[in-house]
Amino acid sequence: MSRLGSLQMLRACAALMVVFGHLQHEAKTMPGAAAHDFSPIFLELSGVGVDLFFVISGFIMIVASRKLFGNWRAPVEFMSRRIARIVPLYWLMTTIFVATMLLLPGALKTALPSLGEILKSYLFIPYEQAGTGLWQPAYKLGWTLNYEMFFYVIFSFCLFLSPQAAVATVATLFSAFVLAGPFLTEAPVMLRYWSDPIILEFVFGAVIGLAYIEGRRLEAVPAMLMVAIALLLLQSGAWMGFEPLGATRPLIWGVPAAMIVAGM
After folding, report:
1. CA distances from residue 224 to 118, 131, 218, 228, 238 in whole angstroms, order as listed
2. Whether pLDDT at 141 is above 80
C-alpha cells in the first residue's frame, strides 16, 4: 500500500469515528434509552475524526496542487475541483433536510431556518442558529465544511506562490486570525467562527504535505513509533479528562492527529 493509500485508509477511519460518535449521541437521546443499560464506548474520542480530517485536508491540498503552484489560472482550477467534489452532495443533503422540516414539522428537533439562513448554509457562511447559540448551518453536520471552504478560498489565492511561500502565507494568515480571535467579540459571527484555533490543523497538514512533496520521509520504525505515541497521547488526555475546547483543541487533539498523519 502506498503512503497516500494509507492516508485514504486513515480518512475512512476518521469518517467512521465521526459516524460512530453521532450514532451514540443519537442513541442516548432515543425514547426508551433511559430504560436500557446503554454505555457509550470511546465517545469522548470520536470527535478526533474531525481533527484528522482537517490535517489530512491540509496535506492533500498541498500534494494534489503541486502542479498548480505559480500558475495564474490555478485559483480557478483549484476551486472548480473543490466545488465539484463538495457542493453537489452537500447541497443535496441540505435540500433534503430543509424539505423534511417543511413537509414534516416536528419530525426534527430543529427550528425551521429563515430564508437568509438557508442561503447562508448553501454559501458556507457561518451564522448563529436562533435560540441555540450554536454556529451551525441548517444541516448542522455541515459545520466542518464552513471551515473547509474557508481554507480552500485562502489557499487558492496562495497558489500564485511557490509551495514554500504558500504554506508560510497560510500559516501566517491563520495564526493572525487565531490571535485576533479574542478581540473579535463584537465582530460578525463569520469572523469569530473563522478565528477558531481549530483552523491551525489545516496548517499542520499543509506543513506535512510540503515536507512530502520535498521528498522528506520517515523510516518505518520512527513512523510507527510516532503513531503509537500519538494514540497514547489521545487516550491519556481522555483518561485525565482534558477538554479539547477552544485554544486547547489543536494541542490536545490537533498535534496527535498531525503525528498520526505524518506517521501514516
Report:
1. 45, 46, 9, 6, 21
2. yes
